[in-house]
């Protein structure tokens, strides 16, 4: 498909005809020899004086009109519209925060074969499936234990994110639990994001014992920055010390930020939690489209220059051709 970028210039096409029709001839005053018997001389030789200008030269008139039309076509800038190039841009950033404290080593989850596995192994399998479903979202990964650390920045490279998820291990961030620091670190990483919607999914099996900022304070900061936090508790609320999950605290964090709290006691429930999160945070992308244009003005412009070159080349050769013809006749 092609089009003109400046089609209004084609309205000037009749301008030469209007000038030809209504404007007077252009005349020049020149020095000349006047004789009173010029008409008698013309009759004697059998020739009449010709009128100068394009009005008596039909071919030159047609050439001028053709050149004018071709130049206007070039000025109107014809372009060929190629197939549109579309690119999808995510409109949401999702950050995953995983607890790697020592209590995640508890083997109270089962895999697809019914074998007992530790909590982190079950979480990895479910989170990996969640990552595979979020191809259009920018995802990041934070791990926390005694401190919080960025494992992967917000990225669309989900293959690298999966590899970094596989590299996580129990205790690599320390044996304790720092939920408040994990929220604070996620807020710091979200500051570099350009998208309006920011979501943190925080999973833990313990209570906060080593954060520099309390979870309540971190949640208040998240509210101020417009970050929604969904919390998932997978630990034992009846345990003691570091292994006891603070379900009430997780619920308060989620409610304060407009998120949801989930309780997952086994792998099936954990899988259902991430399926529910996938439904609650559907894919949202902004499609950016660009349609390349290929300029075609060179064709009418080249045709105009070619016609002028042919016409003037013929005018230069005409005297030599006439002389050659007279010699042959002689």
TrEMBL record:
Domain VWFA: residue ranges: 93-277
Keywords: Membrane, Transmembrane, Transmembrane helix
Gene3D superfamilies: von Willebrand factor, type A domain
Transmembrane segment boundaries: 61-80, 299-317
PROSITE patterns: VWFA (PS50234)
Pfam families reported for this sequence: VWA
PANTHER family attached to this UniProt entry: SPORE GERMINATION PROTEIN, VWFA DOMAIN-CONTAINING PROTEIN
This protein's name: VWFA domain-containing protein
